[in-house]
Input
Amino acid sequence: MTKKIHIFDTTLRDGEQVPGCKLNHTEKLKVAKSLEALGVDVIEAGFPISSPGDFQAVDMICREIKEPTICALSRAVEQDIKTAAQSLAHAKRPRIHTGIGTSAQHIKYKFNSTPEKIIERAIAAVKYAKSYVEDVEFYAEDAGRTDNVYLAKVVEAVIKAGATVINIPDTTGYCLPHEYGQKIKFLKENVAGIDKVIISAHCHNDLGLATANSIIGVENGITQIECTLNGIGERAGNTSLEEVVMILKQRFADRYYTSVNTRLLNPVSQLVSESMCMPVQANKAIVGVNAFAHSSGIHQDGVIKSRENYEIIDPADVGVDKSCIVLTARSGRAALAYRAKEIGFELAKDELDVAYQHFIDLADTKKEVGSEDLQIMLNEVFQNV
Ligand code: KIV
Ligand code: ZN
Output
C-alpha cells in the first residue's frame, strides 16, 4: 500500500519573509488560490503577530480558501498564539504552528534559559494553542543541531500536551542526509505516542541538502514535507516543493504519493517567481528554463531519437509544452535538421551538409541561433533552389 506524504507549503510565510519577496494582499490571495489548485495539503499563510498586514492576509486567505488546512505561525508566546488563533477564526481547517528553539545554541544564546524551562514553555504553548484549535503543530527550532535524546524528551512532552503534528526543522541547513535520517529514526524508536502524530520535515538549504534531507526523512518516517515553490525562503531557501514532489513521483511511486497536480508545477512556479520578483535560475531542477533544453550535439541527437535517452521526466507531466532543442555552436546535424523541419524546411542529406557549414559559421558568432536567425540563414542558402 502506498503512503500519503502531506505537502505543507510555506511559500507565503518562510518564502515571503525573504528580502524583496513581500506580496500585497491581492498577490497573496492569487498565490494561495494557485496553491489550492496545485493540491497542497497545508498552506502556511503567515505569521500574524508580525504585522497587522500579515494578520489581515491570513484572515483573508481563511475566508477564501477552503480545501487545504490553513496554518498560522507563532512563537511559544501567549500573545502570538492568541493572535494566530484570531487570524484563523474563519478557516475551515485551522492549524496553529507554535514552537521554540531546542538546540544548546538556542537555549543558551537565544533564550538564556535551561533545557527544563524550554520543555515547560513548549508544553504550555501547545496547551494554550489547543484551547483555540484542535490541530496544533509544534516546531522544535534548530532540531537539526539538537541533541537527539533531549529532542526526544521535548517531542514526547508536546505530544502528551496535545500536538497533532511534530515539525523537526533543520533550521540552519546543518544536517547531512544520514544525520537527518537517523534523527527521525531515533524519534520513531524512542518517543512514546509518535505513531499517532504526523512528523514533518522543514529543511533549509544552506549546504544545498534540503531536498535530500527531506527525502531521507520520508524514508525514516516523515509524513509531511514543508517546502516552497522554487525553494525560496530564508538565506539559501527551503526545500523546493517541485523537487520533492517529483522525486516521490518519479522514484518512489510504489511507496508514496502526494496530492499535488504536477502539471501545474511550472505555471505556479512562474506565478510565484513573477509576483515575488525572484527569478528562477535557468538550470533549476523541474522549473528552470533549461530543465528540458538540450544544447550539445550528442544529447540532441539522442533526444531526437528517443526523448528518454536524456530525460527522466516527461515535460508534459510538469506543465512544460515540450523539450527544446537549442541551436548553438555545439549542436550537430541532427539538431539542425530537426529545427529546420519545425520551421518548414525538410532538408535532404546534401542540403543538410551545405546548411550545416553556414549554420556553424553563424553559431560561432552568437550564443544561440533562434528560429528567426535560422529562417533567414536557410532562405539565403537555398534562395536559388
Ligand atoms: O526554519 C525554521 O525552523 C522555521 C520554523 C519557524 C518552523 O521556519
Ligand atoms: Zn524555516
User: Anything to note?
Assistant: The chain has two domains: 3-276, 293-381. The first helix runs from residue 11 to 15. The chain has 15 helices and twelve strands.
